[in-house]
C-alpha cells in the first residue's frame, strides 16, 4: 500500500478530519515547525480536531511535536518532497465560470492516468467544491480529455490557465470553484489526492 492509499484509509471520529486535511497539513507544515493554532487556522478546522490530526500523523510517523509545535520527521519530509515535486498550487484565476473563488492544482505527468476527468470532478465536489473542470496538456494545447480542445474553442480561458499555472506536456490541471476559497481549495486537493492515488505515489 502506498502512502497516498494509506491516507485514503484515514478516518477520524465525525465530524473530524479527512484525508485531504492530512494532505494539506503536510503541505502547510512543509519544512517549518508549526504550532497547533496556526495549523488550525491554515486548515480551517478547530484546534481540537487539529490535536487529533497531529496524533494520527504521529502514529503514521509523519510528525513529531513539542510545546513549540510540530514538524515533519525524515519520513514526513520524504513524503512532502515526493508530493511537492509532482504538484503546484494556484488560486483565484480570472475565469468567469469559476467564480467567486477558485483553486487550481497542476499534477505533473498525470494526463495518462485520466480518462474523461469525471471521477476527479466528482471527487472535487465531494471535497467541498461547487464544481470543477479537469484539463490536460497535449501537444502544447489545453484539452478537456476525450471531449474538446479548449485552446481552440475557448482561447481566452486556455490562455488564462496556461499563463497562470504554466503546465507542461502531459500535465493535468484541476480547477475547482466554490462560494468560499477554502472549499474551492479542498475540492481541488481532494481531486488531486484521488489522481495521485491512481498514479500510486509513494
Explain how this protein is built.
- The chain is an alpha+beta fold.
- The protein folds into 2 domains: 11-82, Arc Repressor Mutant, subunit A; 86-199, GAD-like domain (Gyrase A, domain 2, 2-Layer Sandwich).
- The protein has helices spanning 3-8, 19-29, 36-43, 47-59, 74-84, 118-126, 150-153, 155-165, 181-199, and strands at residues 63-66, 69-72, 87-91, 101-107, 131-138, 141-144, 148-149, 172-178.
- The strands form 2 sheets. The chain has a 6-stranded antiparallel beta sheet, sandwiched between helices. A two-stranded antiparallel sheet has the order 1-2.
- Helix 6 crosses helix 9 (181-199).
- It is globular, with a radius of gyration of 17 Å.
- The termini are close together.
CATH class of the largest domain: Alpha Beta
Indicate the radius of gyration in whole angstroms: 17 Å
What CATH calls the topology of the largest domain is Gyrase A, domain 2
Number of helices: 9
Helix share of residues?
A: 40-55%
What count of domains describes the coordinates? Answer: 2
Low-confidence stretches: none
Secondary-structure element pattern, one letter each? HHHHEEHEEHEEEHHEH
Strand content: 15-25%
What is the level-2 CATH architecture name of the largest domain? 2-Layer Sandwich
CATH superfamily of the largest domain: GAD-like domain
Biggest sheet layout: 6 strands, antiparallel
Helix-strand category:
alpha+beta
Mean pLDDT across the residues is: 91
Which word captures the global form?
globular
Amino acid at each position: 500500500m502506498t502512502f497516498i492509499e494509506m491516507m485514503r484509509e484515514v478516518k477520524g471520529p465525525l465530524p473530524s478530519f479527512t484525508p485531504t486535511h492530512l494532505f494539506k497539513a503536510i503541505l502547510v507544515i512543509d519544512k517549518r515547525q508549526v504550532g497547533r493554532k496556526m495549523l488550525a487556522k491554515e486548515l480551517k478546522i478547530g484546534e481540537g480536531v487539529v490535536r487529533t490530526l497531529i496524533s494520527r500523523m504521529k502514529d503514521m510517523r509523519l510528525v513529531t511535536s513539542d510545546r513549540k509545535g510540530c514538524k515533519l520527521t525524515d519520513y514526513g519530509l520524504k513524503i512532502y518532497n515526493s508530493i511537492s515535486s509532482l504538484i503546484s498550487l494556484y488560486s483565484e484565476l480570472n475565469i468567469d465560470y469559476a467564480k467567486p473563488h477558485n483553486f487550481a492544482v497542476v499534477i505533473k505527468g498525470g494526463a495518462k492516468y485520466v480518462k474523461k476527468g469525471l471521477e476527479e470532478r466528482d471527487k472535487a465536489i465531494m471535497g467541498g467544491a461547487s464544481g470543477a473542470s479537469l484539463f490536460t496538456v497535449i501537444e502544447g494545447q489545453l484539452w478537456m480529455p476525450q471531449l474538446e480542445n479548449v485552446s481552440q474553442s475557448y482561447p481566452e480561458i486556455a490562455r488564462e490557465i496556461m499563463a497562470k499555472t504554466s503546465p507542461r506536456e502531459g500535465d493535468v490541471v484541476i480547477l475547482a470553484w466554490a462560494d468560499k476559497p477554502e472549499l474551492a481549495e479542498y475540492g481541488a486537493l481532494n481531486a488531486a489526492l484521488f489522481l495521485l492515488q491512481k498514479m500510486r505515489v509513494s
